[in-house]
Amino acid sequence: MAPKGLDHELLNENVKKCQYAVRGELYLRASELQKEGKKIIFTNVGNPHALGQKPLTFPRQVVALCQAPFLLDDPNVSLLFPADAIARAKHYLSLTSGGLGAYSDSRGLPGVRKEVAEFIERRDGYPSDPELIFLTDGASKGVMQILNTIIRGEWDGILVPVPQYPLYSAAISLLGGSLVPYYLEETANWGLDINNLRQSVALARSEGITVRAMVIINPGNPTGQCLSEANLREILNFCFQENLVLLGDEVYQQNIYQDERPFISSKKVLMDMGLPLSKEIQIVSFHTVSKGYWGECGQRGGYFEMTNIPLKTVDEIYKVASISLSPNVPAQIFMGLMVNPPKPGDISYQQFVRESEGIIESLRKRARIMTDGFNSCRNVVCNFTEGAMYSFPQIRLPPKAVEVARKAGKVPDVFYCLRLLEATGISTVPGSGFGQKDGVFHLRTTILPAEEDMPAIMASFKKFNDEFMEQYEDHRGYSRM
Amino acid sequence: MAPKGLDHELLNENVKKCQYAVRGELYLRASELQKEGKKIIFTNVGNPHALGQKPLTFPRQVVALCQAPFLLDDPNVSLLFPADAIARAKHYLSLTSGGLGAYSDSRGLPGVRKEVAEFIERRDGYPSDPELIFLTDGASKGVMQILNTIIRGEWDGILVPVPQYPLYSAAISLLGGSLVPYYLEETANWGLDINNLRQSVALARSEGITVRAMVIINPGNPTGQCLSEANLREILNFCFQENLVLLGDEVYQQNIYQDERPFISSKKVLMDMGLPLSKEIQIVSFHTVSKGYWGECGQRGGYFEMTNIPLKTVDEIYKVASISLSPNVPAQIFMGLMVNPPKPGDISYQQFVRESEGIIESLRKRARIMTDGFNSCRNVVCNFTEGAMYSFPQIRLPPKAVEVARKAGKVPDVFYCLRLLEATGISTVPGSGFGQKDGVFHLRTTILPAEEDMPAIMASFKKFNDEFMEQYEDHRGYSRM
């Protein structure tokens, strides 16, 4: 009988070939084990609330009131909600036409986009235009939309860091483009060497690929580094020379754990470079409510800001956004609250500062506990997490382990991570899901388990790892590299 | 200078060529006029809350509590929330791991998918498997995901009704496939003639196109008809003969205004047909929280159910969904509430019934007022809205009006709708945005303006239309058809 429309053999090949390791084999196995009753520590995805991080109180109060606007007329409302949350809910409702149940403009509510522009102006010290800011259902949706606008076919290439967050490889596969990798230098704390970039572009060109855009993830995912101002300037100059759009994944800009390495936006660096470049280089930068001390992943809120993008292109992006009618409105309110948090003097200010600083301080400590923990393990080395939410240790697998893995039909780091999962319940993502140099192995874990659980988790990891290494090391000849 | 990556000339041609009239030229002009201070009646999009429909109280109470779970520990909570809303909020929070701020599984919360399956079982009288139900950010996202799974290139065709909701034409363009139109019969109350389908498929085949799926919109958008059981059986037989996946856009299944024409799901009709067909024909059906008496458009919640789709394909769809991590969680709760509303005996039951019946009753009246209003206008004929939220009158434009429009560089119905907008503030969508037979013109309007405003709106329409016809009719020879 002829195959039917949704039989596997007839599907879009781009759908079949794309891969997304963050919810790949390891996650699926972890979900199975959880169903069987095993306690799983899900560190595969940056999902803070799932690991016990409490939501910030003030924004949740505001959004709850926006969902139930009839409470604003209830004489008892002030027993449950502070006056500034009530005022803020009224403010956001006044920006909608019909509350949270009405589609907004497909770019998002104009009033929230204005608040985003004001936030960017305060952050960078340069003007930002709300007409060039689109709200999205999480940053990922924005990234996919922009890549879809750029990619025409397999001869269009996108420069992507390796290791990378696999949204990029997956989206490029799905859209039928080509991923052009550039390697980050692990020995230079995952820094970006412009010579590597040049080589990557030259190689791609020799294969007939037109490189059209470059992705940076800053702070890095999975690598945790913060790009320096000098490095960002080099990158922008490179984009100018090579005629590339810079796609700045800046979703971890609030997740900074080292004072001497602050976050600097690509747009600010570009504006600091002045004319003519500041009017020439095209940037799209992405942000989200899912990260930072917010961690409101489940709400799916994000934005992108376009710099030096022609209006005709902005109109095309608007048109495509309009096919999905509008990003979800509650998350637009979260975005407004994120870029316009309580101010000194507001009733909720102290609480907001206490909660948000508490989260960042704790993440900073956890980054340290985790890095130190990994570095205390046999055959494991790990750069410090300067930013973002991940630790990306290198696991120096003994040749015997590599051999056993290959015989079992597994990529060696997948083999290691599966063994780790079965032994300890720790659900990580193998480095091969992000890309890594040949013969080098990693895993990615979030730094999100609760601070008080962290020592036990790291002890459990160390016990597993050191026994694993003991089992597979060739004591006759193999030595630590 | 060489064009840059996001310059218009270098963009993905599929992005440039797709069209979405619901937010096209008319909407953009209406937005401009609104900015200039003109009062606009936005009937271009089915967005009930934007036109004053109040949200249902109980679901909003539950979601507000889920957003602010700390209220559940507040001794005053029962002053603002009824006990069943509190209990239901606790229930939904227990289905998440980490509340609304945590990503769910990429298919949606298992507990909500189970509630959806139970709803489908009650509706159709046949089993439904939660593993084959995926929650989505609105139905549109689900439609796009399934079309993306099917379409491999321009030689893959999708049968789409004409007139159609332009999500389909836009998504097919964007994905690089081919739209294969089949015409609905206006004179048969927008019924579907299987002979038309056969002709469409034959014509497409002669052009080298492989027709792979067929879209039905039931109840119809923009056409408002409800497909009969007999018609659905014919359609399913046709899909079997032609080896097509049936994509059932059933988002208006609660919007039914004529008792003798109830909604029947395509899945129920298939199951009623029994073996072997009930195990053979592939169906994906779509639903949403945006329509019905809910109208929670801004929340962006939907689901699709897959019938007879192989597990390997389901896994591919799951993988692609996982790239976007998860549909927004608050709207998943709305979906749970929609499929599992208050029951007799619950504290909120009476209020829920009063509110929801009030909305449907009023829509039923408005459908009648609008149809009658259009039919009272010169050169306008309009089928009754049996279901959905739209009226789709045919506007019989005098040849002189067609000529003037063409000289002004406008499609004639666009010309008419723009004139209507400028004269009355009524923002509609021209029939050409949905597709129509050559030389025949329509407009789509929602039936959503408040019941009390409806007579004035229809009077304003009639005044404009009859003056327009007076202006352009050739009194020497032209007569009403």
Automatic annotation (TrEMBL), chains A, B:
Catalysed reactions listed for this entry: glyoxylate + L-alanine = glycine + pyruvate; glycine + 2-oxoglutarate = glyoxylate + L-glutamate
GO cellular component, one term: peroxisome
Highest taxon, organism lineage: Eukaryota
One GO biological process term: L-alanine catabolic process
MF (Gene Ontology): alanine-glyoxylate transaminase activity; glycine:2-oxoglutarate aminotransferase activity; L-alanine:2-oxoglutarate aminotransferase activity; pyridoxal phosphate binding
InterPro entries given in the database record: ALAT1/2-like (IPR045088), Aminotransferase_I/II_large (IPR004839), PyrdxlP-dep_Trfase (IPR015424), PyrdxlP-dep_Trfase_major (IPR015421), PyrdxlP-dep_Trfase_small (IPR015422)
Pfam family, one: Aminotran_1_2
Names of the cofactor(s): pyridoxal 5'-phosphate
Transmembrane segments: none
All residue ranges annotated as the Aminotransferase class I/classII large domain in the record: 84-449
Pathway assignment: Photosynthesis; C4 acid pathway; Amino-acid degradation; L-alanine degradation via transaminase pathway; pyruvate from L-alanine: step 1/1
Keywords: Aminotransferase, Pyridoxal phosphate, Transferase
PANTHER family for the chain: ALANINE AMINOTRANSFERASE (PTHR11751), GLUTAMATE--GLYOXYLATE AMINOTRANSFERASE 2 (PTHR11751:SF373)
Oligomer and partners: Homodimer.
Membership in a protein family: Belongs to the class-I pyridoxal-phosphate-dependent aminotransferase family. Alanine aminotransferase subfamily.
Designated name of the protein: Aminotran_1_2 domain-containing protein
Species this chain originates from: Cephalotus follicularis (Albany pitcher plant)
